[in-house]
Design a protein that fits this description.
mainly alpha; 126 residues
Length: 126
């Protein structure tokens, strides 16, 4: 009777491969989440700059600030309000009124996201 050779992997080989994969994941996962958080913060800063620039353009054209952020969209200054990357919603922007209330309703904008950035500042203070 001829001996048949079994094909496949042994349990030891599978455990070694799984240990190598687990080791690689423990090295890569923290870097991935750090870079993800860093990019979300960069997008938030960029969105705030865009909204503030658009508010200034609206004021320059109309002599007053918009009553709400939605006016920027309805008057075609923006295609749509950007999504706050920290809250995944475009409804969490916080409008800051101007010092002179007769000049409109929203002169500045801040994020409504709770939490603290990597540099130690709160998102709501940006």
């Amino acid at each position: 009777m001829a001996l048949r050779r079994r094909t496949g992997f042994t349990l030891i080989e599978l455990l070694v491969v799984m240990a190598v994969i687990a080791t690689l994941l423990t090295l890569a996962a923290p870097r991935y989440f750090t870079s993800l958080e860093k990019s979300r913060e960069a997008v938030l800063r960029q969105d705030l700059a865009l909204l503030r620039e658009t508010l200034d353009k609206y004021y320059g054209d109309n002599g007053k600030y918009p009553d709400a952020l939605g006016d920027l969209v309805s008057n075609k200054y923006l295609h749509g309000l950007p999504v706050d990357p920290m809250t995944d919603s475009s409804a969490t922007w916080v409008g800051i009124p101007p010092l002179e209330l007769e000049k409109g309703g929203v002169a500045d904008v801040k994020s409504g996201a709770p939490g603290i950035a990597r540099d130690g500042t709160a998102f709501k203070d940006w």
